[in-house]
Design goal:
390 residues; alpha+beta; Helix Hairpins; Heat Shock Protein 90; 3 domains; 8 helices; 63% helix
Length: 390
């Protein structure tokens, strides 16, 4: 069993021993001086000599003067002893104070040195080095503190490894969900085109031959979009950098919406033409995500309107559906990753939309009412068309 005293007990015992020893020494010193003083008065035999004098003869007078002289010498010796006692006491107390200060400084250094080690180790941990370990030396309390610190450091290393593993898994899961979500959007028009070809092939072969080039063109275009997406996700670990291009958004909107026309009630209204500076792939992803959300929110046969308009310096694209709408409580959260009210949704579509809108220096806003529908409004800076003067 370890009976080694702790810091507080050691300090108390040390100072008690020091001051008790000092008291014993001072007491012994004063007793010795008192004995010397008593012995001086005893050797004087003043009372005995004084009682034998009659003061009738000259010899008695001389003897009385001698006695008084000896008495004066004895008093002087007594005063000298008292003076020595005072000097000795002051000196001893001064030495005792100096020794106490030295002991205190030593104890303070003995405590602050490991605390400095702890401070440096804590600084290393704050910079991400969780592997730091301290030697478990010193007094009991410091040893226990260092042992606790070392246990914490080892636990932090384990936690860090677990967090890194969890973070990698989260990144892969998020990447997989985003990739699955983005692949689904091009697959929808491909599927619609294939279904349309199947219907025409079985019902009206002549009409099938008419729509075949259009359907193949749509599928080729969506396959190209899939290839572009695959290339984008291959660089997903890097920051998403938009590849800006100047184009007329009406052409892209028409091309993107075309595969949906025969199955969904989508109306497009274009304002005066203009040019925008945007990443075409990002524009496609933004529009297909919002359009797919509008389709999912709409009832069969529900109307969807895509409208472009111009503000003073902005191109405005709005997508409106007549679906279920979004509750006021949910509206601020729709762009949060993984937030979704869909049974099969991942909650990443609109989060990606907001991110792509932001890096293309545009803005997005939402207006919605329950049971009336929602409108997504995208604004980006317009470039004036030199050919038309608009």
């Amino acid at each position: 069993m370890n009976l080694r005293p702790g810091l507080r007990s050691s300090v108390v015992i040390l100072f008690l021993a020091l001051y008790l020893t000092s008291l014993f020494i001072l007491n012994a010193f004063f007793i010795n001086k008192q004995i010397q003083s008593n012995q001086a008065f005893k050797n004087l035999k003043f009372d005995q000599a004084l009682s034998s004098l009659t003061f009738k003869t000259q010899e008695d007078s001389i003897l009385a003067r001698q006695l008084m002289h000896k008495f004066g010498e004895t008093m002087a010796v007594t005063e000298m002893l008292q003076h020595e006692a005072r000097i000795y006491s002051a000196t001893y107390l001064l030495v005792l104070m100096v020794i106490s200060i030295i002991i205190f400084v030593f104890i303070l250094y003995y405590i602050t040195r490991p605390l400095k080690e702890l401070q440096n180790a804590t600084a290393n941990i704050s910079h991400g080095d969780f592997s730091v370990q301290l030697p478990e030396t010193g007094i009991k309390e410091i040893r226990e503190l260092k042992a606790s610190f070392n246990r914490m450091s080892r636990e932090l290393v384990l936690v860090q490894n677990k967090l890194l593993t969890a973070e990698k898994e989260t990144i892969w899961k998020e990447l997989s969900r985003i990739l699955a979500h983005e692949i689904k959007n091009p697959l929808t028009p491909i599927q619609l085109s294939v279904q349309r070809l199947e219907e025409k092939f079985s019902q009206d072969f002549n009409n099938f031959r008419k729509i075949f080039p259009e359907a193949v063109n749509i599928m080729n275009q969506e396959i190209l979009n899939l290839q572009t997406l695959a290339q984008s996700f291959s660089n997903f670990a890097k920051d998403i950098e938009p590849q800006f291009a100047i184009f007329d958004p009406r052409n892209d909107i028409t091309r993107i919406v075309e595969p949906y026309h025969h199955k969904y009630n989508i109306k497009i209204i274009f304002a005066t033409d203009c040019l925008i500076r945007f990443d075409p792939t990002h524009f496609y992803q933004i529009l297909t995500n919002i359009l797919q959300n509008a389709i999912d929110a709409s009832s069969p046969g529900g109307k969807i309107a895509i409208i472009t308009s111009m503000e003073e310096h902005s191109f405005v694209l709005s997508i409106t559906d007549e679906g279920k709408g979004i509750a006021d409580a949910d509206l601020p959260r729709i762009f949060e990753p993984y937030f979704t009210k869909k049974k099969k949704g991942t909650g990443l579509g609109l989060a990606l939309v907001q991110k792509l809108v932001a890096i293309n220096n545009a803005t997005i806003a939402v207006e919605s009412k329950l049971e009336e529908g929602s409108t997504f409004i995208i604004r980006t800076k317009r470039l004036y068309n030199e050919n038309t003067g608009n």
